[in-house]
Amino acid sequence: MADYPQHLVRPHHLFDGTQIVIRPIRAEDAAIEQDFVRGLSDDSRYNRFMGQLRELAPRKLQYFTEIDYEQHMALIATVMRDDHEIEIGVARYFVSPGNESCEFAVAVDDAWHGTGVAGLLMLDLIAAARGRGLKTMEGFVLTSNHKMLKFTRQLGFEFHRDIGEGDTVRVIKTL
Q1: Which of 76, 124, 125, 137 is the most exposed place for a label (fewest CB within 10 A)?
Q2: CA atoms of 96 and 138, how far apart (whole Å)
Q3: Domains plus CATH for the chain?
C-alpha cells in the first residue's frame, strides 16, 4: 500500500459555515463508507452505481477503501457528530489504461445536497488528478440524472453521446 497522501487533507467551510474535512479514504474507513452507501436514497444509489443495491458487497467495500492513491484515488468529505467522523460525500477517480486520463464518480449524502459538498469534492479531486499528471477526466452520467448533468456542465465538462450508449452521456474535462 502506498503512503497516505497527507497533503490532500484539507478543511473546508460550506455555504452555511459548517466545517468539513476532505481527505483521501483509508482502509480504516470501511465502516463509514458502508454507512454512507446505506444512507443514500434509492435514487442516489441508482444514479451513482447505475443499478440497485443496498450496500457494498465485502469485496467491493474493500476495493473502494483499500486504494493505492496512484491508479485509484478517493476523497471523502466528513463532518464530526458526537465525537464520530461521518462520511457525507465521496469522489474518486480510476486511472484509465495509458495513464493520461481517469474516470471519476461522485456521490453526496442526500441531506447534504445543495450545500457545496459535491463542488468542493470535485475541485479537490480535479486538483489531485492534475497533480498526478493526468490530462483528462471523464465520467458516465445517466441521461435521467439532470442534476449531475448540470453540475458537470458547471465544472466545465463537455458532453459526448456515444453510439449505443443511449442511457448515458460521457462527460469529459481537459485538465
Answers
A1: 124
A2: 10
A3: 6-135 (3.40.630.30)
Least Cα distance to 117 among 44, 54, 52, 173 occurs for: 44
Can you tell me whether residue 175 is helix, strand or coil?
coil
Task: Count the neighbouring beta carbons within 10 Å of the beta carbon of residue 157.
Answer: 22
Closest to 111 (Cα-Cα) out of 44, 56, 64, 51: 44
Closest CA to 153 of 173, 127, 123: 173
CA dihedral 114, 48, 90, 18 (to 10 degrees): 20
Give the position of cell 497522501: 5
Task: DSSP letter for 11, please.
Answer: E
Mean pLDDT in the chain? Answer: 90
Q: Is the pLDDT of residue 6 over 60?
A: yes
Higher pLDDT, 36 or 166: 36
Q: Are strands 168-174 and 136-142 parallel, antiparallel or unpaired?
A: antiparallel
pLDDT digits (tens, 9 = 90+) for 67-106: 999 999 999 999 999 999 999 999 999 998 888 999 999 9
